[in-house]
Amino acid sequence: MGKKEAVISLLDGVIKDRGVPKNVKSSVEEALDILRNPNANNIKIAETVSILDEVTNDPNLSVYTRTVLWDAVSKLEALK
After folding, report:
1. For position 28, which CATH number holds?
2. Given CB 3.0 to 4.6 Å as the disulfide criterion, which of 13, 44, 53, 67 pairs with 40?
3. Burial per residue of 47-68, b for 16 or more beta-carbon CB atoms within 10 angstroms, e otherwise
4. How many domains does the chain contain in total?
5. pTM for this one?
6. Is residue 33 exposed (0-12), middle (13-18) or buried (19+ Cβ within 10 Å)?
C-alpha cells in the first residue's frame, strides 16, 4: 500500500469513529475528496494538509484522533 492509500485508510477510520465531532468529519471528508481525485497534485496535497492541520486545533477532538490526523499530515508531507 502506498503512502497516499495509507492516508486515505487513516482518514476513513476517523470518519467511521463515532466519537469524532461532525464538523471534524466534514473537514476530513473534504480532505478525502481531494485525495481520491486521481489528478491530485502537490497543490491539492498542500490544501489537504492545511485542512487537516486546521482540524487538529479543534478542542473537542480526542487525543487519539488528533494523533491519527498528525500521522496523516506527516505522511502527506512526505508525498510533496
Report:
1. 1.20.1440.50
2. 44
3. ebbebbeebbeeeebeeebeeb
4. 1
5. 0.89
6. exposed
Contacts of 23 (CB under 8 A, 6+ apart): 58
Cα dihedral 66→20→37→71 (10° resolution): 20
CA dihedral 47, 12, 27, 63 (to 10 degrees): -100
Residue 69 domain boundaries: 3-79
Cell of 9: 485508510
Distance CA 42, CA 13 (A): 24
The H-assigned helical ranges of 1-80 are: 3-16, 22-36, 42-55, 63-79
